[in-house]
Amino acid sequence: MNQTGQTQDELKTLVAQAALKHVVPGEYLGVGTGSTVNKFIDALAASGLNIKAAVSSSNASTERMLSLGLPVVALTQVERIAVYIDGADEIDAKGFMVKGGGAALTREKIVAAQADKFVCIADVSKRVAVLGRFPLPVEVIPMAAPQLIRQFAAMGGKASLRQSNGQALLTDNGQQILDVVGLQITDPLGFENTVSQWPGVVTVGVFAHQRAHVCLLGTAQGVQTLVYD
Ligand code: 5RP
Predict the structure, then answer these.
(1) 108 included as an active-site residue
(2) Residue 3 above 70 pLDDT?
(3) Tens of pLDDT along 95-153?
(4) Is pLDDT above 90 for 6?
């Protein structure tokens, strides 16, 4: 709870509601994944806004949208997405993000790359000076995981396989997630370029090339709109 008594959950609700203003009626809308996005999906369904269809970044978001009667199409059917709306685990002063806490980073990056504009919705706890406070998610091909753990160790990070019900978690793509702690990512573009080239890495959770254009940040003073050049 913050000084004005709002919980993190309430701040997420505020930014989810504020994101409705960024939906372009009649156009395709990219939809991310996570608890903040769930609130956005609920708000979108309740708003009656008319989108051409949503393009989803995860099975979980697809199921939620369909259950609320929102139209969803495959990315393969779409050439251009007007706006992509998604949360983040961290966002810095330039709109560079860490994402993947919900294990959906690969599809999130793919859908974001096809959108004209990325609107990040986040509560103020996600704002950081330097990326690396939140464990960095990396989707990997399982056979490469031990070698990739050693490569992260060589750069000062400690990587571990994300677990679910006592087993390695499998993503929507049937791959695994490494969570890496102990990194200070001072050069997000360079870091994303480097790690993306390691054999066995499917997607690194640094979103530098697919950074946010706008962040709706939920704070004790209300929703701040941050626009990045
Ligand atoms: C999912 C993500 C989410 O956007 C990120 O984890 C933030 O989630 P939440 O809105 O639940 O805090 O990247 O892969």
Answers:
(1) yes
(2) no
(3) 999 999 999 999 999 999 999 999 999 999 999 999 999 999 999 999 999 999 999 99
(4) no
**Ligand 1 centre from 52 Cα, in Å?**
25
DSSP symbol at 49? -
Q: Residue 98: what are its φ and ψ, rounded to 5°? A: -110, 130
pLDDT, averaged across the chain? 97
How many other C-beta atoms lie within 10 A of the C-beta of residue 75? 17
Half-sphere exposure of 227 (CA within 13 A, CB side): 3
- Choosing from 90, 108, 139, 192, the catalytic residue is 108
Q: What Å distances lie between residue 157 and 7, 98, 106, 116, 211, CA to CA?
A: 32, 15, 21, 33, 23
Residues 173, 175, 179, 183, Cα dihedral to 10°: -90
For each of the domains in the chain, give its residue range(s) and CATH number, in order of start. 8-128+209-227 (3.40.50.1360), 136-203 (3.30.70.260)
Give yes or no for a contact between 41 and 31, defined as CB atoms under 8 angstroms apart. yes
